[in-house]
Amino acid sequence: METVVIVVLTALLAGGAALLVGRRGGGGGAPLVEEIEKLRRTAEEERQRLAEERRRLVEEAQREAEQIRAAAREEAQRLSEQARRELEEARAEARSLRERAEAEADRLRAKVEQEMKARLAEERQRLEADLARDRERVERDLEAIRQEREELKRQDERLARRGEQLDARAARLDELEEKLSQEERQLVQRAEALDRRERELELKLEEIAGLTREEARRQLLERLDEELEEEKAIHVKAAMERARMEAKKQAAHLIAQAVQRQASETAAQLAVSVVPIPSDAMKGRIIGREGRNIRTFESLTGVDLIIDDTPEAVILSSFNPVRREIAKMALEQLVTDGRIHPSRIEEVVEKAKEEMKHFLYERGEEAALEAGVVGLKPGLVQLLGRLHFRSSYGQNVLKHSVQVAHLTGLLAAELGLDTGLARRAGLMHDIGKSVDREIEGTHVDIGIALAKRFGEPPEVLDAIAHHHDPENAETTYAVLVAAADAISAARPGARRESMEDYIKRLEQLEQIATSFPGVEQAFAVQAGREVRVLVKPGKVNDAKATLLAREIAQRIERDMDYPGQVQVTVVRETRAVDYAK
């Protein structure tokens, strides 16, 4: 309010000053002074009025403040009374709850005392029963102790009698020892007499035989040398068996070391496929944004896709040749099409898998027709086609199986057996190799399980089970399959060996065998897997034959390179010929 008044006064003074200036300019000064005086009085009256208004407002504010204080005191008193009443009610409620709790506690205390009394009574009865049983057990133990005590008394009596018997026996032993001493002296005297008699007999033998002691010793040593020669051959044979067992362990260690050091190059040859691409710009499209294309491709095919600095080519790596071929087919189609994204990759991979199924079935069907085997179930034909991507020692297993089927059929025809069944057994003998890289176990065990699953005849099962150990075969077909398998695997060129090297290896085997003294003839048989050596029986006995076989085998190991192993068989025979006239 004072601010408003000051503003009004300021405005009035400003107006008065302006009027004064105007009037001075016009020449009239007295009215202006009167006007200013009038304004001053007006301002003074307004100030007084404002002061009165201020006092009035202050008094009204004080009266309102007193009213508010009185209302607040009344409200506080009311709230205090209400709180006092609520406190009294709470105290009464607490006393009631305390009384009820004490009553409940008394009731529970009485109940617990009753239960404790009942439990104590039951426990007392149980303890009394246990005490009775313990008392009976103690009485039985006491009875057993009394019986043992009586038994010990009887044993003491027996030991006492035994001691008396031992004393008597000791006396008899003393008598016998005296007799033995006398007999020992007599034996010494007899031995001296025998020595004298032996010297006399030696002199008579020298006179009768016409040989001196040294000559007789020399003949005896020669005879011992002959006997020891046979003994040495037996020891050599045993040592060879021990060495063979040790060699297996050492060979496993050496193979493991060789695999660790040299497997990378071989694995790269057997587990890597190269896919050409039109330009290096295609590599970025194959990888895709943030690598999504390559991750999708690898997850769908199970093959590692390697993109490196190789110009205009990418590499597929996998030990499974079927999966690697599927990935190759899919990648080639993607590169040709040019549309490379996750959904397209999935579509192309599924299509490549279907094409691979048809391709494998066609290869299996062609092999069955070429081998002359009919009636194979589709599942077996599919597995047979998988052998197209399987190799063993550089030899394609599917072609090897077809060759074994032909050879088994020829052998069965010569023996008058079922040629169709023989060809079937030969074609199926390595069927386990189709999935041996995906299932644990040997290809023999896997092949037996697959043949049983598809209901193959028992002769086929026996051929699969024993084509590596025909000695335990139950049918003739298994023996024929084993022979055909050996012929197919060992023929010239089957395992990357030329005809010239093959013939040279056979000739070298025979030359090494005939270079030893006492050898009459040598023949390399079973495609160089065995050397049969015929010796002269007058120069080589049975003991020396064992040593000769070992020496020939060592020479072959030292001087030749050959696949697998070579068996050395030394044959010694004596013929007696006579004529009846």
From TrEMBL:
Record keywords: Coiled coil, Endonuclease, Hydrolase, Membrane, Nuclease, RNA-binding
One of the GO biological process terms: mRNA catabolic process
Domain HD: 397-490
GO CC annotation terms, alphabetical: plasma membrane
PROSITE patterns documented for this protein: HD, KH_TYPE_1
Secretion signal, residue range per the UniProt entry: none
Positions in coiled-coil regions: 33-257
GO MF annotation: an example: hydrolase activity
Xref: SMART domains: HDc, KH
Annotated Gene3D superfamilies: Hypothetical protein af1432 (1.10.3210.10), K Homology domain, type 1 (3.30.1370.10)
Assigned EC number: 3.1.-.-
Enzyme class per UniProt: hydrolase
Protein origin, superkingdom: Bacteria
Entry similarity comment: Belongs to the RNase Y family.
Role of this protein: Endoribonuclease that initiates mRNA decay.
Protein name: Ribonuclease Y
Organism: Oceanithermus profundus
